[in-house]
Automatic annotation (TrEMBL):
Keyword annotations: Metal-binding
Coiled-coil region list: none
Natural source organism: Leptolyngbya foveolarum
VOC domain location: 27-150
Keyword Metal-binding part of the UniProt annotation: yes
Pfam name, any one: Glyoxalase
GO terms for MF: metal ion binding
The protein's name: VOC family protein
InterPro entries: Fosfomycin_Res_Enzymes (IPR051332), Glyas_Bleomycin-R_OHBP_Dase (IPR029068), Glyas_Fos-R_dOase_dom (IPR004360), VOC_core (IPR037523), YwkD-like_dom (IPR037478)
Length: 150
């Protein structure tokens, strides 16, 4: 899968590939993430990862923001802010979402962009099943994120 060159950082949600004979429609529509510091997380996802803002909504009744972000050509992340959300119960193997992976064309280039913004990454590893290279890093709330070269 070739990524659109017009995207700021050429990231796409790795789970967006259509899977035949699965759910009708077969693609991941969005992933929702709750953050503790809205401004910090908005900066991370838009300025560092380069995701495009689709919509930003303040919900006064919840004293909360909802930020819709475009990832690649059709995937989305919904970023929610809530006052004092609980931390992940354990790291790294909590129940639920383990990590969010983004497919990239050039792993080294994307790692260099992260390092330029002082985002630490783990050493590059090789997926023993596919032979593809990948690395992990974290968002500001320590959500594990992965770059997966395809």
């Amino acid at each position: 899968m070739r990524l659109a060159s017009r995207r700021k950082h050429n990231l796409v949600c790795a789970s967006s590939r259509r899977i035949p004979r699965s759910l009708d429609g077969g693609a991941c529509q969005h992933v929702a993430i709750i953050c503790a510091d809205y401004a910090r997380s908005k900066h991370f996802y838009t300025e560092i990862l380069g995701f495009e803002v689709i919509a930003e909504t303040y919900r006064a009744e919840r004293d909360s923001y909802k930020l819709d972000l475009r990832v690649g050509d059709r995937d989305q992340i919904e970023l929610f802010s809530f006052a004092n959300p609980p931390a992940r119960p354990s790291y790294p193997e909590a129940r639920g979402l383990r990590h969010l992976a983004f497919a990239v064309d050039d792993l080294e280039a994307e790692i260099a962009k992260l390092h330029h913004h002082n985002v630490e990454t783990e050493p590059v590893r090789m997926d023993e099943m596919t032979g593809q290279r990948f690395t992990f890093f974290h968002d500001p709330d320590r959500l594990p994120l992965e770059l997966y070269e395809h």
